[in-house]
Amino acid sequence: MNPRVKEVKPEKNYILRLYFTNGEVRLFDMKPYLNLGIFKELTDEALFNSVRPDGLSVEWANEASICPDTLYLNSY
Fold it and tell me: Which of 3, 8, 9, 12 is the most exposed place for a label (fewest CB within 10 A)?
């Protein structure tokens, strides 16, 4: 099992700074997802900045969430 997100901070240009349970800090680029389904709403900067950890992954005020494994495996 991959580590889970314990803290998240939105950055400029639709980047998430992720703090994982294993101590790693990684960046995740949300831009490739912003033309898909509910993620389209996240182009609103205020909504994008509403991101928060949900115990395993991250969630936004519009209830969008993303798989914690995707966040870990596709972050740098």
Answer: 12
